[in-house]
Task: inverse folding
């Protein structure tokens, strides 16, 4: 991401419509679930959050760490911020999103390293695969949670 890329330009680039546009949510869902890879899914998912994570976490880390490690740490920080938000709302410590997002970050790294792409498939197949990948990572996170927090 270039320094001159504003939030508005970033969102338009990711969603194809301006920030706050009527079809913004629809475009985000369509583009993310229909993405040709799991890494591409995250390029379209929640572009406002992605903009700030990219600018304030990923890019600074990438200046001195390998990209794969920067990706994993960015996912972990995103998960920790989700945990913090839920903890504040529930007024008790929650540690669920950090491991779950770490699992998804690991999947992004592994799929990218293995060159796993499904761009030759129709949108519905790509959407199903992306959805199932998220669902499987969620299942693994619940399994990990049940093993450590009995």
Result:
């Amino acid at each position: 991401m270039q320094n001159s890329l504003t939030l508005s330009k970033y969102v338009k680039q990711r969603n194809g419509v301006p920030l706050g546009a009527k079809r913004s949510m629809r475009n985000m869902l369509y583009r993310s679930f229909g993405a040709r890879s799991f890494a591409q899914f995250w390029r379209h998912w929640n572009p406002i959050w992605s903009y700030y994570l990219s600018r304030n976490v990923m890019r600074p880390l990438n200046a001195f760490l390998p990209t794969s490690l920067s990706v994993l740490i960015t996912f972990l920080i995103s998960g920790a911020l989700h945990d913090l938000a839920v903890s504040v709302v529930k007024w008790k410590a929650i540690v669920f999103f950090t491991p779950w997002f770490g699992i998804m970050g690991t999947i992004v790294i592994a799929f990218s390293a293995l060159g796993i792409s499904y761009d030759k498939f129709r949108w519905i197949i790509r959407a199903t695969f992306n959805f199932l990948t998220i669902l499987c990572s969620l299942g693994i996170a619940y399994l990990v949670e049940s093993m450590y927090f009995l």
About this structure: The helical segments are 7-15, 24-33, 38-44, 47-62, 67-90, 97-114, 123-148.
